[in-house]
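Our preliminary data section would be incomplete without showing what the modeling component actually yields. Below, a chain of 336 amino acids is followed by its predicted structure, encoded as tokens that our downstream tools consume directly.
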Amino acid sequence: MSTTTPASPAAPPTATLTVFRLASLFTFLAVAMGAVVCATGSGASCPTWPGCRPDTIAPQWELSPVIEFTHRVGAIGAGPFVLAAAVLSLRLHRPVRWVRVMPWVALAGAVAAGVFGRMVVVGHLPTALGAVDLFSALTAMTVIGTSTIVLGRVPVRPDTDAAGPDDGGPSPHRLRPTAGEPAVPLAAAAVVAVVALHVTGIFAAGTGSYTRCLGWPLWRTIGSDLHPWLQYTRLGLAGVAAALVVATAAVAVRSDRLRGWGVAVAALFAGELALGLVIRSGGLDQGVAAGYSVLAAALLWCLGLLGAVAWTLPARPPAGPDGPAHEIGEHLVASA
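Predicted structure:
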């Protein structure tokens, strides 16, 4: 009687992983530079699109036009990488089936953010669409980053195994969340709370207010902003989000496999709080505002990446050198 040896898991194609990483990096840079544009008030420095002015594509060598045009180039450049990642994801099989979906979600978010970004330049963007714009950009950044982590850490089966027994019972190569890993739900909840915090800032901001930019509330209401009830709601939401961020970092730091990510989240959050104190004390200038917004973007990005890393951690193998769980765990650790 002949037996069939199942295909062993393998690392994802190098080119595919590289495209995913570039898509994740460019999407983060687009969001971070967009935050800088808002914080520095550089959005009106290039009044036409895609070129900076009607008579020239490149901006003049002044800070505000260069900031706006750099953001524009980064945002336009992120699109092809996200599209390429989405197309390449179709070649992946069910062990990483979420990676086949998430790049398309990211692509939809990137396209929406690009369309709304153009509307901001050539006309006026209503408040509701501004909130959709920000939500789309933050979703694209978080989702493509998460899918990149999953792709890089979970082994896939070769293409020849596409028609194999994957349609049947459980496969040892399927992706499963790590049982009992508390960082996964904490990081996910923190991401949701932080995104909600940033998006609601669009509705609370008064005309020209920094509240509309990426950043946390300054732990007080602002007289020139709108809707006091919404400002108080955002303060409460910020408290919840802060507790979730701290809890996520604390749990991650206690894990030898997540300690570096926990330290990164804690450092970013501490930096955000420190700059918030500077701003609250009356030190708001373009540099401080830009740093505050970039840290906010980096904190959200890092929370998503930490959650993805925690989700793809192999379950710790049982005592003893034998057993399938030990073999799969060793392979995942080696491929990380």
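Residues 10-160 form one domain. Residues 14-40 form the longest helix (27 residues). Preliminary results of this kind motivate Aim 1 of the renewal.
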